[in-house]
Design brief:
The complex is a heterodimer of chains A (371) and B (400). By secondary structure, chain A is of the alpha+beta class. Chain A has one domain: Creatine Kinase, Chain A, domain 2. In chain A, 47% of the residues lie in helices and 15% in strands. Chain A contains 14 helices and 13 strands. The longest helix of chain A has 22 residues. Chain A is globular and about 55 Å long. The termini of chain A are far apart. Chain B has a single domain, classed as Na+/H+ antiporter like fold. In chain B, 78% of the residues lie in helices and 0% in strands. Chain B contains 18 helices and no strands. Chain B starts with a helix and ends in a 6-residue tail after the last helix. The mean pLDDT of chain B is 84.
């Protein structure tokens, strides 16, 4: 299969996808009820995009094309309400969060669809370990070369997106010490990491052909990159975020990415060179491990600074772009989160310290998702 | 060795009830493992069959002196299972999904009417036909809870099976008590007494259940119920309530069930109890199934067999009718609806316990229906665990 041509889309439009957990109302473990939820939604003639995911206790919602932050807020609210009401009829809970706090990966069932069964037979336990829940944000790009340029420029801000969304401190019943432990499951895949630094679409197409020629990959979907182009949509897709605990936070993060992207597209403050990637993995690790308290290294100045500080500085720099996009309200909210270190991972940890019972944490996660 | 000595030795061994009890239990447990590992069938079927072979083969290995003690043990096991069943009922769900209420109402009504009609058309007299109908309403809590736990099933079919079973068990007990009050010799003051009896049963059970739930919730704050010492406390508390119910002449069925429901619904915090209250409870539950097997009387098949089979057929139709009658709005697929109907078919041995409590004061009421009841329970105990397990497995809800 050769690379699909890059469809043009309106610059800086965006879309949000959220992978969500389905838990039972009994002990709040994951439950394989995706098919039930989809059936209820289908019977209600519900408009909107809800899809199954690789294991039967995951479900994905996706907005249409959004221009502004408010579009995302209203679309996500509609999707959430529909999902919550379907879940109520089934006595299951829907929750955000990058991981389920105490599920056992080996108990997961692969959703009954050919692609998922195929992935499962290739990746074995990695596929079941992939019961993790991410937020993906698509950013519209008018042309493929600009998409690639944006992709690599945005790479430098990956730690921001990770730290702002981090909501997966618990894995398999234990506190990992990470703010986002979810990404550790992604790194296990052989084709994870970053996209190769190429400057134009033809070069990218050649890289893609070489890779498909080796037989290692069949399509774009086989690359588990942090940011990858989606030629069919004419977008690049930022994939490093945990699903936040609320749709509100998800929309705010999407608005922040959109604002950074506008700044990068309009002002072109720098061009990415290969050496910028020297610190990429280290920075990303810091964000996963310590969240907003992590330290990132500037690839050019070699300055070390806390991620929280780096985010606030970036927000100052892009303020005008946020205002143009009507995303300034979203950024104001995120500033508060950064200043108070009030991210979702901390919320989960505090709750666990108080309740001392992970199923109760998941229950309150479900309540928070409804708010 | 001369014959008389051999006989004496044999007599000596035959007179050791503990030995026979132990050997019988061992045999039944081994049968359970064979069923589970080799045939992939429920262990409890193995226990029942094992118990049946040893008991029914006429070895008489359970001496009559031990029977009352064993009855108490199985009653405790049943109380335990009912409590666990109660903790799986979310009243909130019935409010959120009205089709569940419809399903429950249809389930109880159709089963009661269908079974009473069948019984009366096959020659049961009025009150006895009604009694059969009432006893037939309930699904076996022991079978559904045990299978759900053994296969660690979860999902739509499992949760609905448990909730519907809890409701039909309550309805069955109340109906039976009402009808027993109307027994022929009570004509005249009949309905006053009947209502009085039922009210005592219901209010007493509600009160006892609520008290029990309150005690459990206090205990929960005091000890970690997921640990051994916590479980022991929990178990002791259950025994206290069990003894109190004995004294109050309340069948030990409703209060634990209600306690479970109250405990579950009064506090949203997830209730994580160890299965069957830990090993001790697990042992009692296993014993319950073995003794059910032992007490099976084959003769009942000849006396009550025909009516029992007709009854089971009518009851199965009623359960299917109830589930499919409400399935359109119930957010169930057809496949799930069929599976759910099947899981509701186990005829409840709880009915036997209930009947034996009634029989204490009124043999004339119970004796005519007993053979049918025994036969229905016998057939159900042999076949239904397998059906329930298959239904849950086909719904992809088991984690075996």
């Amino acid at each position: 299969m050769s690379l699909a041509p890059f469809a043009s889309s309106r610059a800086l439009t965006f879309g949000v996808e959220l992978e969500l957990q389905i838990v039972n109302g009994n002990d709040y473990d994951l439950v394989g009820s995706a098919a039930d939820v989809l059936r209820v939604l289908a019977a209600r003639k519900f408009e909107g995009d809800v899809k199954p995911e690789i294991t039967a206790s995951m479900i994905e919602i996706a907005t249409g094309i959004c221009e502004h932050y408010e579009d995302a807020v209203s679309q996500l609210n509609t999707l959430r309400d529909a999902l919550v009401s379907a879940a109520e009829a089934l006595d299951v809970g829907i929750a955000g969060g990058g991981t389920h706090a105490f599920q056992k990966w080996h108990e997961r069932q692969i959703f009954d669809a050919p692609r998922f069964q195929q992935l499962s037979s290739l990746y074995g336990y990695l596929a079941k370990q992939f019961t993790i829940f991410g937020q993906h944000v698509h950013i519209g790009c008018p042309a493929p070369d600009e998409a690639l340029s944006l992709l690599h420029c945005l790479s430098r801000y990956i730690p921001h997106f990770i730290a702002l969304s981090a909501s997966s401190p618990f894995v398999q019943g234990a506190d990992t010490g990470f703010s986002s432990a979810r990404l550790n499951s992604v790194f296990a895949f052989p084709l994870s990491g970053r996209a190769p630094l190429v400057s134009n679409w033809d070069e990218f197409a050649r890289y893609f052909d070489k890779m498909t020629g080796t037989g290692v990959v069949k399509g774009m979907k086989d690359f588990y990159w942090d940011i990858r182009p989606k030629p069919e949509y004419g977008t690049i897709e930022v994939r490093v975020m945990d699903t936040p605990l609320t749709v509100g936070r998800a929309a705010e993060i999407a608005a922040y990415i959109q604002s950074v992207a506008r700044w990068l597209m309009v002002e072109r403050p720098f061009r990415t060179v290969e050496d910028d990637y020297l610190v990429y993995s280290f920075n990303r690790f810091q964000a996963c491990r310590f969240g907003l308290e992590g330290v990132v290294v500037d690839p050019r100045s070699h300055e070390h600074r806390p991620i929280a500080e780096d985010i606030l500085a970036t927000m100052d720099r892009i303020e005008q772009h946020a205002i143009e996009l009507r995303a300034d309200g979203a950024l104001r909210n995120l500033r508060e989160v950064v200043k108070n270190d009030a991210g979702d991972a901390n919320w989960l940890r505090r709750l666990h310290a108080q309740e001392q019972l992970l199923p109760e944490v998941v229950r309150q996660q479900c309540l928070r998702w409804r708010s | 060795m001369d014959t008389s000595k051999t006989l004496a030795a044999w007599q000596f061994i035959a007179d050791q009830p503990m030995l026979w009890l132990a050997l019988g239990t061992l045999a039944a447990l081994l049968a359970g493992e064979v069923f589970w590992r080799v045939l992939r069938l429920p262990r409890i079927t193995g226990y029942t069959v094992g118990g049946m072979l040893v008991g029914g083969a006429g070895f008489g290995w359970v001496p009559s002196t031990l029977t009352p003690t064993l009855d108490i043990l199985t009653d405790i096991a049943l109380a335990l299972l009912l409590f666990e069943l109660g903790t799986r009922v979310r009243l909130h769900w019935f409010r959120a999904n009205k089709s569940l209420i419809l399903c429950s109402v249809l389930d109880c009504t159709l089963t009661f009417v269908a079974c009473a009609l069948v019984a009366s058309s096959l020659g049961m007299k009025g009150v006895h036909a009604l009694l059969i109908g009432a006893l037939a309403v309930g699904t076996s809590p022991a079978i559904v809870v045990r299978i759900a736990m053994e296969t660690r099933a979860q999902g739509q079919v499992t949760e609905r099976m448990l909730s519907l079973t809890a409701i039909n068990t309550i309805v069955s007990i109340v109906l039976v008590k009402l009808i027993a009050g109307f027994a022929p010799q009570d004509v005249g003051l009949g309905w006053v007494r009947a209502l009085g009896n039922a009210a005592y049963l219901l209010l007493g059970s509600l009160l006892a259940g609520a008290l029990m739930a309150y005690a459990f919730s206090r205990l929960r704050r005091f000890a970690n119920l997921a640990e051994e010492h916590g479980v022991a406390l929990l178990f002791a508390l259950l025994l206290v309530f069990f003894a109190l119910m004995h004294i109050a002449a309340l069948p030990p069925l409703l209060p634990p069930l209600i306690a479970g429901i109250v405990l579950r619904n009064a506090n949203p915090r997830p209730l994580l109890l160890p299965r069957h209250f830990g090993t001790a409870g697990g042992l009692l539950v296993i014993l319950l199934f073995i003794l059910n097997g032992v007490q099976i009387q084959w003769e009942s098949l000849f006396v009550g067999g025909i009516l029992a089979i007709a009854l089971i057929a009518a009851r199965t139709l009623a359960k299917f009718g109830a589930v499919f009658g409400s399935a359109a709005r119930a957010a169930l697929s057809m496949r799930q609806a069929a599976a759910l109907s099947v899981t509701l078919t186990p005829f409840s041995a709880t009915a036997l316990v209930l009947a034996s409590y009634l029989g204490l004061n009124d043999r004339a009421l119970i004796d005519p229906v007993l053979p049918t009841l025994l036969a229905a329970v016998l057939i159900s105990e042999l076949i239904c665990p397998i059906l329930v397990q298959l239904a849950l497995r086909h719904s992809n809800e088991t984690q075996e």
